[in-house]
Design a protein that fits this description.
Blueprint lengths: L8 H29 L8 H20 L11 H31 L5
């Protein structure tokens, strides 16, 4: 059985992650803030607010860097450092967007 990754696999996975992230950002952040601005009754998900930006950054990483594997133990030391920096940056961005979302919701008169 051949387990070698194909060169197009990171591109496909990156495109899927990026599309999923953009969809989550639209559905859980943009649409909800628009409804809040119009003073509509809404429901929101903290998980959706946090995970959308993570997928956007990780999808961009996969599209730009195109790592040969997503398993850190199969990466070179340099690739592993870049991988963990991107994961950390994705996490920081997710927390930042979550805090911004909460601040914006309070500005619009919603108590989160």
């Amino acid at each position: 059985m051949n387990t070698q990754p194909t060169p197009n696999r990171p591109i496909l996975m990156g495109a899927i992650c990026l599309a999923l992230g953009i969809g989550l950002v639209y559905y859980f952040i943009w649409r909800v803030l628009e409804a809040m601005a119009n003073k509509l009754e809404i429901t929101y998900s903290y998980k959706g607010v946090g995970i959308g930006p993570f997928f956007v950054v990780f999808g961009l990483y996969l599209l730009i860097v195109r790592p040969p594997s997503l398993k850190p133990n199969e990466m070179s030391p340099r690739q592993r450092v870049v991988y963990w920096v991107v994961v950390g940056a994705s996490f920081v961005l997710s927390v930042s967007v979550f805090m911004w979302f909460k601040h914006r919701a309070v500005e619009l008169g919603y108590d989160l």
